[in-house]
Amino acid sequence: xxxxxxxxxxxxxxxxxxxxxxxxxxxxxxxxxxxxxxxxxxxxxxxxxxxxxxxxxxxxxxxxxxxxxxxxxxxxxxxxxxxxxxxxxxxxxxxxxxxxxxxxxxxxxxxxxxxxxxxxxxxxxxxxxxxxxxxxxxxxxxxxxxxxxxxxxxxxxxxxxxxxxxxxxxxxxxxxxxxxxxxxxxxxxxxxxxxxxxxxxxxxxxxxx
Length: 209
Ligand SMILES: NC(=O)c1ccc[n+]([C@@H]2O[C@H](COP(=O)([O-])OP(=O)(O)OC[C@H]3O[C@@H](n4cnc5c(N)ncnc54)[C@H](OP(=O)(O)O)[C@@H]3O)[C@@H](O)[C@H]2O)c1
Prior knowledge:
6-stranded parallel β-sheet; two-stranded parallel ribbon
């Protein structure tokens, strides 16, 4: 398959790119700082550009079988660049007839299926206080994905950590863990993008044990 990856230079995005290439997929990596990618492979095409550039977002998406967005807000950013970029990605996908989108968010973006989890609720409350800007961006991103009309999956992330991939569990708040290994997340995102796993769902993805 041909997979377009946005946020390809992040800790998660780089793992997604490597995992996709290792599985034999063609990868188109969109990156604002392509020099950070550090991957060279005959099946990899890199588009170094801004998320605000409609033409390059469209180039990245054209001909893809699926799109993975590992984009996430940074603490000091202004505005909602990830949400706006996601809206551009969605528009480009709809224009190009590409219908599978797998993106990341956090439990800050609620889901109707969510139950009660006091520890997760405390984290969400803290984010609301200490990172209102990134929170707004996550909410805008989640809205863009949910209203896309595409076959979307929104992987909501707890605390990320390093280490080897391990099995994950997926489910609403109340049935999830608080930690997720980045390599396991990359494997989940790739699996979802290349299958019908969790279509039209926004599970919290966490390490199984
Ligand atoms: N750390 C945690 O425990 C945790 C928990 C839950 C959720 N998250 C979220 O998960 C996301 C992914 O994790 P990560 O460790 O891979 O983060 P990361 O290394 O910061 O990667 C974020 C990616 O988004 C890109 N990006 C950010 N702002 C952008 C903009 N305005 N235009 C274009 N690209 C932009 C970055 O590009 P550059 O490489 O050019 O900066 C990078 O590729 C994080 O951003 C965070 O929001 C983190």
